[in-house]
């Protein structure tokens, strides 16, 4: 049977575009459908604009800190609308780049929302397309919890196009998005409260990261409240919001943002028409290195399949899928050593096992930890501390976890992830010459374990 395409990709985000480009360059006839702007969450309402906003929010402290180095300024002011306009211009540029990247590899881009008609057919607007294979790469979206008044709160998507900055904000959730936006908004002068329901921010991260980041956020003036849940949100007559908390207190704020997780975008795909199986939370079940659903020629990658919701994961999955299907390569995606950064202020960088995970998994470990004040702050007077930690498996001396809170943690952890991939031992870290004077050299000079079994 002949089809309109070898591969129809639903969603032009990180995973979909990567898969389409590779499949196209390997000779497949590919069509991609996208209803929104090109590039998906990462480019439009995620990593890219978020990082630009992190940069924007850091200048206030940089100016303040420069005084210790002899600079003086009149009070700097910040123009939110100028930032948004400049950010929008940059994002449009990236949208066009994505479009051109696809066109250059002969991929046809169809603008509109794709739904399944049957297991080889999708519909976009009033046109139907048939394909030998279909790849679902529709990503996810932020969710609001089922709390009365939840609709009065914003989600992260909304923050990227707010007409004006609020004076006060309450951010519910202390995960990646909660702590990143807390840093951004606080840095822009918004009075910021983080309401985290459990005892620690950044669930699943090493305990030293959780504690250090919370302390540093508080030093910056963010009101981080743990073990605090929202039970009700109401609008006051003056337009402000009244937030009822489980400790029976109330909080008045101008704006509330839910940073309480994301859900896969599957509800409107009409997956039932193709018979594709999902989990109860709507994520698509895939198996094997081909990211195959229960329908053998329908595949899925990225946030929609419930793997860690990280752009590089979707990129790797999309690329491996395309190479396996349309090339000779038999690439597999190995997530056992998965570096990640949180662009909180200061940054968090982590790769490998936390101390707690390592112990639970039965490793006999040594943990090395260093806390220090970065050289810059000996002159600024700022009390910010950097924390670095290594987890070492005593059985073979392998470094099985690297963790950091501090400036450029994401940049530093990338190199350590390479070392971990190469199987580096603590002895190799110790034998590595430091780069002086840097913070990163501390990772090769930690000599004494803090805990021993
Ligand atoms: P996370 O899962 O990281 O955090 C969710 C937060 O919301 C947690 O603090 C959680 O508390 C809390 N929470 C969940 N449900 C409720 C509820 N019903 N009521 C109150 N609090 C609740 O989700 P995010 O939305 O922050 O981010 C989604 C994902 O996007 C991340 O996990 C990450 O994979 C990705 N991301 C990656 C970034 C990066 O790479 N830098 C940046 C932004 C997002 P508790 O801890 O108690 O469960």
Q: What would you report as the Rg, rounded to the nearest angstrom?
A: 24 Å
CATH architecture descriptor text of the largest domain: 3-Layer(bba) Sandwich
Main sheet record: 7 strands, mixed
**At the third CATH level, what is the topology name of the largest domain?**
FAD/NAD(P)-binding domain
Q: What fraction of residues sit in β-strands?
A: 15-25%
Give average pLDDT, whole number.
Answer: 97
Give the number of helices: 12
Helix coverage percent: 25-40%
How many domains make up the 3D coordinates?
Answer: 3
Bound molecules: NADPH dihydro-nicotinamide-adenine-dinucleotide phosphate
Ends distance: 65 Å
Q: Using DSSP, what is the number of strands?
A: 22
Description:
The protein is α/β, with parallel strands linked by helices and 453 residues long. It folds into 3 domains: 5-142 and 263-326, FAD/NAD(P)-binding domain; 150-260, FAD/NAD(P)-binding domain (3-Layer(bba) Sandwich); 340-444, FAD/NAD-linked reductase, C-terminal dimerisation domain (Enolase-like, domain 1). 30% of the residues lie in helices and 24% in strands. The chain has 12 helices and 22 strands. The chain has helices spanning 14-25, 40-45, 47-66, 80-104, 156-159, 176-187, 207-219, 311-326, 355-360, 377-380, 409-421, 426-431, and strands spanning 5-10, 30-34, 108-111, 114-118, 121-124, 127-136, 140-142, 154-155, 168-172, 191-195, 223-225, 230-235, 241-245, 250-253, 255-258, 262-264, 298-300, 340-342, 348-352, 365-372, 386-393, 399-405. Strand 5 and strand 6 (127-136) form a beta hairpin. Helix 1 runs parallel beside helix 8 (311-326) and helix 3 (47-66) packs across helix 4. The protein is globular and about 70 Å long. Bound molecules: NADPH dihydro-nicotinamide-adenine-dinucleotide phosphate (NDP). NADPH dihydro-nicotinamide-adenine-dinucleotide phosphate binds at residues 145, 172-178, 180, 196-198, 203, 229, 259-262, 308-310, 340-343. NADPH dihydro-nicotinamide-adenine-dinucleotide phosphate (NDP) binds at residues 145, 172-178, 180, 196-198, 203, 229, 259-262, 308-310, 340-343.
């Amino acid at each position: 049977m002949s089809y309109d395409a070898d591969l129809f990709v639903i969603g032009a985000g990180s995973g979909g575009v990567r898969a389409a480009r590779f499949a196209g360059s390997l000779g497949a006839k590919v069509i991609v459908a996208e209803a929104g702007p090109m590039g998906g969450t990462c480019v439009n309402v995620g990593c890219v604009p978020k990082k630009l906003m992190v940069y924007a929010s850091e200048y206030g402290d940089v100016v303040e800190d420069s005084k210790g180095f002899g600079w003086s300024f009149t009070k700097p002011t910040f123009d939110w609308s100028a930032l948004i306009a400049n950010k929008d211009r940059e994002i449009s540029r990236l949208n066009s780049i994505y479009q051109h990247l696809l066109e250059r590899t002969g991929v046809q881009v169809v603008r509109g929302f794709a739904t399944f008609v049957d297991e080889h057919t999708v519909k976009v607007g009033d046109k139907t397309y048939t394909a030998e294979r279909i790849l679902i790469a529709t990503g996810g979206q932020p969710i609001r919890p089922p709390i009365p008044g939840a609709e009065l709160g914003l989600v992260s998507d909304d923050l990227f196009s707010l007409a004006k900055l609020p004076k006060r904000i309450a951010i519910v959730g202390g995960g990646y998005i909660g702590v990143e936006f807390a840093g951004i908004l606080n840095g822009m002068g918004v009075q910021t409260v983080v309401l985290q329901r459990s005892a620690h921010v950044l669930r699943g991260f090493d305990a030293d990261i959780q504690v250090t980041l919370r302390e540093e956020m508080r030093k910056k003036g963010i009101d981080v409240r743990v073990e605090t849940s929202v039970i009700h949100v109401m609008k006051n007559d003056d337009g402000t919001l009244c937030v009822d908390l489980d400790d029976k207190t109330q909080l008045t704020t101008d704006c509330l943002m839910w940073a309480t997780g994301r859900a896969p975008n599957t509800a409107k795909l009409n997956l039932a028409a193709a018979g594709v199986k999902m989990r109860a939370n709507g994520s698509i079940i895939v198996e094997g290195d081909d990211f195959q659903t229960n329908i053998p020629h329908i595949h899925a990658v990225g946030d929609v399949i419930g793997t860690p919701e990280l752009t590089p994961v979707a990129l790797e999955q999309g690329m491996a899928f395309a190479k396996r299907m349309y090339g000779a390569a038999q690439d597999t995606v190995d997530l056992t050593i998965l570096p990640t950064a949180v662009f909180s202020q200061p940054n968090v960088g982590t790769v490998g096992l936390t101390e707690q995970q390592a112990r639970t998994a039965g490793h006999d470990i040594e943990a090395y930890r260093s806390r220090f004040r970065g050289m810059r702050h000996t002159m600024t007077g700022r009390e910010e501390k950097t924390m670095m930690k290594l987890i070492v498996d005593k059985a073979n001396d392998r470094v099985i976890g690297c963790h950091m809170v501090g400036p450029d943690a994401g940049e530093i952890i990338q190199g350590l992830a390479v070392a971990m991939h190469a199987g580096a031992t603590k002895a190799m870290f110790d034998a590595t010459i430091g780069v002086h004077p840097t913070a990163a050299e501390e990772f090769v000079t930690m000599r004494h374990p803090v805990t021993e079994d």
